[in-house]
Design goal:
Elements: H1 10-15, E1 23-26, E2 30-34, E3 42-48, H2 55-61, H3 64-80, E4 88-91, E5 107-111
Antiparallel strand pairs: 1-2, 2-3, 3-5, 4-5
This protein binds guanosine-5'-monophosphate.
Domain HIT: 10-120
Protein name: Histidine triad nucleotide-binding protein
Pfam families: HIT
């Protein structure tokens, strides 16, 4: 397997409730929580609860319900944290070259300030 999923990665432990997080939204298949090291006034992470490392992995193995839930959770989280209506940025690091630190698929939501050309 190309991307063996580590059941003990930090986000898996947050999903299982073994590590605390500042939750914004929880749905059947997704979870959103504040980043522990915020790089913008609003910096939230949205993850599918299932064991997916990358978009390739997620799109190949997740159900239609999980995929729909995740997409909706991103938009709903942006609204709940007030990133809407002023505007925000979504970012997902995938793989070593991007600097992906946690091997569980996640989308960053940055907002609450002018974002310029920042990358994370
Ligand atoms: P990556 O570089 O993989 O795209 O982003 C991982 C993000 O997870 C980083 O922004 C980092 O601050 C955040 N992070 C790492 N460990 C924890 C944690 O235990 N709790 C929370 N809430 N965020 C974390």
């Amino acid at each position: 397997h190309k991307h063996p999923y580590d059941e003990n990665n930090i986000f898996a432990r947050i999903v299982r409730g073994e590590l605390p997080s500042k939750k914004v939204l929880e749905t059947e298949h997704s979870l959103a929580f504040h980043d522990i090291n915020p790089l913008a006034a609003i910096h939230v992470l949205v993850i599918p609860k299932g064991p997916y490392v990358s978009w390739e992995d997620f799109s190949a193995r997740a159900s239609e319900a999980e995929i729909a839930d995740f997409v909706r959770a991103i938009g709903e989280t942006a609204r709940q944290v007030g990133a809407e209506p002023q505007g925000y940025r979504l970012l997902a690091n995938v793989g070593k070259r991007s600097g992906q630190e946690v091997a569980h698929l996640h989308v960053h939501i940055f907002g609450g300030q002018p974002l310029g050309a920042m990358l994370a």
